[in-house]
Amino acid sequence: MRPKASSVQAYIAAASPATRKKLKELRALVKATAPRVTERISYGIPTFDLDGKYLVYIAAFKQHVSMFPAIGAVARELKQALAPYRAGKGTLRFPLDRPLPKGLIRKFVRVRVAERTARDR
Question: Residue 53: left if φ>0, alpha if ψ -120 to 50, beta else—which one?
């Protein structure tokens, strides 16, 4: 069991080298695509918030990193593209031994931003 991290930076630092590399990449992609996000630990994993509400979560595992939630507009708009990475209703898994699908992750974040922004109007 992973000890609880007090910050996103501490969570990433506690991961294995291969996992740490992927988490850093995911974090950078989220922050570059949605520059207004803030980050915190929620449910024991890195959480990126937009305007005080969660936008996306990322998490470390032994063989992959995950991103959540792949539901709602993301699931509808990116269904085919997400299919190879699906691992349950709202979870995406990105294996450590393969490059991250950066374009897809950027689209995921853009759709989540649009969804979150529309919901807050």
Answer: beta
Q: What is the DSSP letter of 52?
A: T
* The residue type at 2: R
Q: For 13, phi and psi rounded to 5 degrees?
A: -60, -30
Q: Which residue has the tokens 């950078």?
A: 28
3-state secondary structure of 82: helix
89 neighbors 20 (Cβ within 8 angstroms): no
Q: How far apart are CA 27 and CA 33, in angstroms?
A: 10
What tens digit of pLDDT does each residue of 28-51 get? 999 999 999 999 999 999 999 999
Q: What is the pLDDT of residue 1?
A: 42
pLDDT, tens only, 58-68: 999 999 999 99
Q: Are strands 64-68 and 92-95 parallel, antiparallel or unpaired?
A: antiparallel
Q: 2 by DSSP, 3-state: which?
A: coil
